[in-house]
Specification:
three-stranded antiparallel beta sheet, single chain, Rossmann fold, five-stranded parallel beta sheet, disordered N terminus, 236 residues
């Protein structure tokens, strides 16, 4: 969506509480933008991708095979996964947020999230939150599977090069020595896995507002999201 272009109403009435669903490929800025928009709108922020990252982190630490669907499903059912109001991820009461965006988790999370049994195990929790409180939800398949009836559905997009640059800066800030080329290669591979998986492949669904973020600051994208939300749901 171009911020200068008029918005066209084409949605059916809400079926849920006011829910803003933000989807898009890895490193498109979903979490940062959604958190900023939630703060501006006074809504709860919920990054569903942290659930998959938490499962991936625990699986890696416990040596659970990432291609064993039943092993991962059993793991999910045995974990107590919670997001606090600040958006931090708690596993069995322990805050693991700072461990969820390492290169190791980045490389493995697509394989874990591709398992249908894992997605089914986490779907109910995500949907319940959408039905209980006004929220800005972010994550893969939010707009197409989890809350396709959300009041506002947004797909944040950016080129692979742009997303790799963002992720490379994050890794450098954490002391990682991964090269930009390695991060770019990993980004493209994640895109391939996410877009071709059988369970809820990454895609922009019909009637979803697409926002291209290349060359835009975080604040510019948040402004666009907030303006769109006010248009779709007057008064939030």
């Amino acid at each position: 969506m171009n911020p200068e272009e008029p918005l066209i109403e084409h949605r059916q009435p809400l079926k849920l509480l006011p829910v803003i669903a933000i989807d898009g490929p890895a490193a498109a800025g979903k979490s940062t933008v959604a958190r900023g928009a939630a703060a501006r709108l006074g809504l709860q922020f919920f990054d569903t991708g942290l659930l998959y990252r938490a499962v991936t982190l625990v699986a890696l630490r416990r040596g659970i095979p990432l291609d064993c669907e039943q092993c991962l499903a059993d793991l999910v059912h045995g974990l107590k996964l919670n997001l606090d109001r600040s958006g931090s991820m708690l596993v069995d009461g322990r805050d693991v947020t700072g461990d969820l965006r390492t290169p190791e988790v980045d490389s493995a999370v697509s394989l874990v999230s591709a398992q249908p049994a894992v997605r089914n195990a986490l779907f109910t929790q995500q949907r319940r939150i959408a039905e209980q409180t006004p929220v800005v939800m972010v994550g893969r398949d939010i707009t197409t599977v989890v809350v396709p009836d959300a009041a506002v559905r947004i797909f944040l997009n950016a080129s692979a090069d742009e997303r790799a640059r963002r992720r490379h800066r994050e890794f450098q800030a954490k002391g990682s020595e991964l090269s930009f080329d390695d991060v770019l290669s990993d980004t493209k591979e994640r895109d391939r896995k996410d877009s071709t998986r059988k369970a809820a492949p990454l895609r922009a669904g019909p009637d979803v507002d697409i926002i291209e973020t290349d060359g835009k600051s975080v604040e510019e994208v948040i402004d666009t999201v907030v303006r769109l939300v006010h248009y779709r749901i007057p008064g939030p």
